[in-house]
Specification:
single chain; 511 residues; 6-stranded mixed β-sheet
Length: 511
């Protein structure tokens, strides 16, 4: 009887021990040792023909882990067998064998996956083909053409390690697909503790440890906001005044690290001196009865016909779009110039008079909404006949900030201009902005974007040369940005040089 009890106790203890060992094995399998006591224990693997995104991702991974641990992980391509732990960066032979194909993912989506002795960092990337190289487009910032946004840098000099030798790379374009970069920056931030609060080395936080072990579960996601852009991302004159000594190349890297860019979108003043002189100089386009204006006769059928043709040419890939015109991806902008010297012809004046009752007493009102949006509607209606999948971009701005009294064509994508930098202190402006914003949400059938002002007080101080108290209202900013995203706003452009901390918080909420 006693022997039977001892046998049962031994069996029960053995089962517990086996179960405990299995648990320990499972936990250790879920961990990935990158560096062990200052020695690298993994290899970074890319394709033998990597995308620009994969090249940058591999270098950024190698650099930051070197700064964290003092150990340098080798970078190898997939042309030969590789033993040991691997971090697979972008599409390559080994990631494909595990069933991960980045090019099959939706735009901006990325995956971080943990497998035995393997981490996968992958997403949809722009590929360096001749067709991709010749894509037309004039984005909002970071370069006057899409090709301009693919800046070239000496990587090791840019990150402050020129002693490693010259290493020139072309960065993925700000508005190109770069899902592998997104995966890598997510990994460095959330698994390795790196933070990029600004572009200069003094505003980058890199923890120190001799042993770097990561563990987690698979992640598959995309940024919450599809278009993420800011004037401060390309507004060079003020950068050193706020961020301290910093090079252009450091700023270029900062844009990628904050995941700025995303979907190709543009919406800014298109009828200005440059386009008028090159394209709309004939009398039939000109505003009547007013001198020295950059406005046109927006009730003119021949002007509608001309702009429709320019939009069709752009979407057909022709290169005769006027210089300075903002158009990129699926979006072609139509925005009047920034003044009120409107045409005095009878039809234009009749449309302007019809909107007088929409004055609000605020900067953003609607007395010109019927006038401007009747022109935008006319162009959009004709474009839809030949290019039904494309959009006309319009700003809801100043005297045409409110929706017009008639329906908007379904291919008009509107971006209301909102004074977000005043929301903590200006109740009336906030209420007026929210009123017109919600009206546009109801009115607009196409994707909604936003133009957000963050130009006070920081920009005024930088331009005027005086010191201002920083406009740090991060909770208010976070709340309003979350609201915009929850309302299904597709993208946001920040106009103005804002406080550096505010910009960081906005970028994180956007993601």
């Amino acid at each position: 009887m006693k022997t039977c009890h001892l046998y049962s106790l031994f069996l029960f203890t053995s089962i517990l021990l086996i179960f405990s060992c299995l648990q320990t094995f499972a936990e250790s399998e879920n961990e990935f040792i990158i560096v062990d006591r200052g020695k690298p224990t993994a290899t970074i693997v890319v394709s033998s023909s990597p995308t620009p995104s994969a090249v940058l991702s591999a270098l950024e991974l190698q650099y930051h882990i070197l700064r964290i641990t003092g150990a340098e992980l080798p970078i190898k391509d997939d042309s030969k067998p590789i033993s040991g732990r691997k971090i697979l960066v972008g599409d390559n032979k080994f990631s494909a064998e595990l069933g991960f194909i980045g090019k099959n993912l939706p735009s901006q989506e990325y995956i971080i996956a943990f497998r035995p002795k393997t981490i996968v960092l992958i997403g949809k990337d722009w590929e360096n083909t001749e067709a991709n190289r010749h894509e037309l487009g004039r984005p909002m910032s970071c370069g006057s053409t899409l090709e301009d946004t693919r800046q070239k840098i000496d990587y090791w000099a840019t990150v402050g390690m020129p002693e490693r030798g010259k290493y020139e790379i072309e960065l993925p374009g700000v508005y190109d697909d770069q899902g592998t970069c997104y995966a890598t920056y997510h990994f460095l931030e959330h698994f390795c503790g790196v933070r990029w609060y600004g572009p200069s080395r003094t505003s980058i936080i890199i923890p120190k440890t001799k042993t770097l072990i990561v563990k987690g579960t698979d992640i598959r996601r995309a940024p919450a906001l599809k278009y993420r852009d800011a004037l401060w991302s390309g507004f060079w004159p003020f950068m050193q005044k706020q961020w301290g000594p910093v090079t252009r190349e450091e700023v270029y890297l900062f844009w990628r690290r904050l995941k700025l860019g995303g979907e190709k979108w543009a919406g800014n003043h298109t009828f200005h001196k440059q386009t008028l002189e090159n394209t709309f100089f004939e009398p039939e386009y000109q505003a009547k009865g007013v001198k020295n204006t950059t406005q046109l006769c927006y009730s003119s059928p021949v002007l509608v016909e001309k702009v429709v043709q320019i939009a069709q040419d752009f979407f057909d890939g022709k290169k005769n779009v006027p210089k300075g015109w903002k158009a990129v991806g699926n979006y072609f902008a139509i925005v009047p110039d920034d003044n009120l010297k409107f045409c005095q012809c009878d039809r234009c004046q009749e449309l302007l008079r019809s909107g007088r009752k929409m004055r609000t007493g605020q900067f953003s009102s609607g007395e010109a909404s019927n006038y401007i949006f009747s022109f935008i509607n006319a162009v959009a209606k004709e474009l839809h006949k030949t290019h039904p999948e494309k959009y006309i971009t319009a700003l809801a701005y100043w005297v045409y900030a409110l929706p017009p009294e008639f329906d908007i064509e379904p291919n008009v994508s509107v971006a209301p201009c909102l004074h977000t930098c005043y929301y903590a202190i200006h109740k009336e402006m906030y209420e007026n902005d929210m009123m017109l914003y919600h009206e546009w949400l109801k009115k607009c059938k196409a994707p909604i974007f936003l133009w957000n002002y963050y130009h006070h007080p920081m920009e005024a101080g930088l331009i005027g040369g005086f010191k201002c108290f920083p406009n740090i209202m991060v909770h208010k900013t976070a709340d309003i940005m979350r609201k915009f995203i929850n309302d299904s706003v597709r993208g946001i452009f920040i106009c103005g040089e804002q406080d550096m901390l505010e910009g960081y918080v906005i970028a994180k909420i956007w993601d």
